[in-house]
Here is the input.
Amino acid sequence: MSTEAPRHGDPADADRSALLHGYPGTRVDEASGVDGLLDARYPDVMAVLEGLGAAELAARAAAEQERREEAGVLFVATIAGVRVERPFPLDLVPRVIDAATWEHLARGAEQRARALNAFLADVYGDAVDPDRELPAIVAAGLVPVELIRATPGYRRVAAGVNPGAHPRAVVYGLDLLADEDGRFVVLEDNLQVPSGLAYALANRESMLRALPELVPLAEAIHSPDEAAPLLAAALRSCAPPDCPRAEPRLVVLSDGPQNAAWYEHRILAEHMAVDLVGAEDLVAFQGGIGQRTSTGEVRPVDVVYRRFGHDEMLDGSALGDLLVGAAQRGKVSICNAPGNGVADDKAVYAFVGPMIRFYLGEEPLLADVGTWVLGDPGQYGAVRGRMEQLVVKPVDGSGGEGVMIGPELTVDQVADLEQRVADRPGAFIAQDVVEFSTHPTLIPDAQPPLQPRRVDLRMFVVSGADGPVTLPAALSRVARGADGLLVNSSAGGGSKDTWILR
Here is the structure.
């Protein structure tokens, strides 16, 4: 592939050439820098898009969004403070990640999965071992015990719910940004109910349907269709040790259409060829769990892939008592296990590097964003009075909820933030603002019609009996506005199809 600037047609072909002509590349743009030269990954893709022109691309994008809405590719987003259900937005300019970069990211993601699962096993080990007073990492002086015990996601009652000592986080999602040096850094970890995989599958299907001209190029990239079988295999491999079935029976547990990711629940169950069930479908059966079918038959259940809430099932509900009791008796596996919030707490995030060194004896392959744990008086003192320069997050937040980006706040909003943090410093962390990468994105009414927008990357790792495996599918999320730094889907961000080169 060439990195030369694309040639534009004569003036009679203005619509076609205008797609790339004048693109305001940035020094952190992944496809085109300030010099106007395309990165080596993009000339072939851009040639196809430019051949279609802005008007045709906009028409196809609109038509595909209508098809996605009809197919139920929906997500609940909070826009201007209002929760709305809308088609999950897709931009038709794909993001391309080269094979070497992906291999490095996958190794780093799998390393984090191993370390975080080791941390969960360590943290909950003392709750089932009365002779062990402290987790080993605490006893070594690397993580304060007060931090763990004060974490909202730490639930002592969640100990012993992973029969056979299988990984507590079978499905792990991590969000990354490419910084000003092109280096990917981890923004946060998700070990409770990470979502986005089904939307990555839908994005590839939509892209090739809307732009069949790209199909020949797609032969050089990984198919996300490989992801669902890997997910199902990892989930089944974590069945209880005394499971009597050669192929453990797996179900996807959902709380129904009110869930923001209801589409994902349905699609993953369909792709894994397993039943999608609700609380009303699960009953006690042969000392474990059964699924009551529409005909009244009860079928055994060995693995429950739960797709809702954080830890409601630990709060004494009938469903929780049923599932947690069966798991503690070694009769069913709950994936992911309740209680995992202690590992993806924003304050605990700051200690993942030490976890990797302590549990694995390795140096971290992926860097973190500079983070201050404000519950620590020394770290709080280092940033007190300069919240306007930082990103401030609640320690137990998710989906971008409660995130405050200092440089985007007014003077009054900064003062309010400083007071909120002063009132409850342990409820927040602060992070450096990362100048993260942009990507060409179709904005039909703009000139030129391709404009740079911020993007992040969500990856998925499954940890089965044979260790962690990175799924060959990723979700790139896109900020709504030209200056926006918040890309979360639940905050109204869009998405791109992510092409991972072989």
In short: The chain has 16 helices and 22 strands. The first helix runs from residue 14 to 17. The first strand starts at residue 74 and ends at 79.
